[in-house]
Amino acid sequence: MSLAIFDLDNTLLSIDSDHAWGEFLLEQGAVDPVAFRDANDRFLADYQAGTLDIHAFLEVALRPLAENSPEQLAAWHQQFMASKIEPHILPKGEELVARHRTRGDTLLIITATNRFITGPIAERLGIDDLIAVEPEMVKGRYTGHVTGTPSYREGKVVRLEAWLTDQGLSLDDAWFYSDSHNDLALLEKVDYPVAVDPDPTLREVAESRGWRIISLRD
Q1: Are the C-beta atoms of 183 and 176 separated by less than 8 Å?
Q2: Can you give the pTM of this predicted structure?
Q3: What is the β-pairing status of strands 141-147 and 129-138?
Q4: 7, 16, 18, 105: which one is catalytic?
Q5: Which Gene3D superfamilies does the record associate with it (predicted)?
Q6: 7 belongs to the catalytic site
Q7: pLDDT score recorded for residue 149
C-alpha cells in the first residue's frame, strides 16, 4: 500500500478553484467588481509565473470569508459546487483516483487553495484526507487570517511532512500528481512524480528527468 497524493486545481479539476471562487463572488455581487477582479486575475497570473506572494494573496482571498456569515457562505458554496466545480471534475481524474483506491493506496489531496473552498470538493471526490490552506476561525466565524504554514510551494512539503508524522506514514513508494512547476519541491520528494497536463516549465523539467507525463483531459 502506497500513498497517492493529488494536486487539485488543473490536475483533478480542469480549472483553478480559487480563481473560480473569486469569479463566483463577483457574479454574486459580493465583492468590489473592479478591484477584486483585478486582484483575482493578477494573483492567478502571479501563481502561473511562480511569483505569487502567498500572504498578499490570502489577505485578499480570505477577506470575503470574514465579511459574510457562515450561513451565507455555505449557501454560496453549494451553488458554486453545482455551477463551477461539478462541470470541471475530470472523469479521467476520477478514474485515476479509483485505480489507486482499488490498489488500497492512501489517498491525499494537497492544495494551495483554502479548505473552505476545497473541503467539499475533496468530499465529492471521495478523498478523506486533505492538506489545504487553513483559514482561521474564531467563535464560528472566519477572521480573514490564515493559521499555520500555507500549503504552497515548499510549504506543501512542510505540511506534508507534519501530516506524515501525525499519520505514522512515510513517502516510501509515494506518488504525486501535479500540473504545476510550483509543486517541484514536492515532486522531487516522491518516488513516482507524475506531471499531469503540465505547464511549460514543469513539462520541460519532467522531460529532462524522465518523469511520467500524462493527460487527464484527452
Answers
A1: yes
A2: 0.96
A3: antiparallel
A4: 7
A5: HAD superfamily/HAD-like, SG protein - dephosphorylation function
A6: yes
A7: 98
